[in-house]
Model the fold of this input.
Amino acid sequence: MAHPPYTITDHTADLGLEFYGTDLEDLFENAGAALTACMTDPETLSFREEYFFSAEGGDREELMVNVLRELLYLANGRGFLTKRVIIDHLDEHRCSGRVLGETFDADRHAITQELKAVTYHGARVTGGDAGGLKGQVILDV
Done:
């Protein structure tokens, strides 16, 4: 039997991310900071611009993933790097807020890791060791 004109190989292209917060609002804000830290050095960013975002989800894990997807869209789709996330509204199924940061500038910022997607695989929100919350997501790189 002839071999097919292709080969399928296993390839790990994921990055696990954990973040912590005293409550869900704090957790989501810290998740945004963690996402930025995966892409670039947050210390090189300034508070020059502001964007608004909103996300919905059926539970807190889906909501967390969708918030992070909004932030990743700003980075990949608009070139906006988030320095700080501010949650203005958070309930069981909706989150809205603002992100402060600036547009990517090759003279001032280095992209250390290109992120393709925030996945639902492994997304969890659990109690943290110190009594707060712990969030986990897998990023496709």
The chain has a mean pLDDT of 91. The CA atoms of residues 50 and 107 lie 21 Å apart.
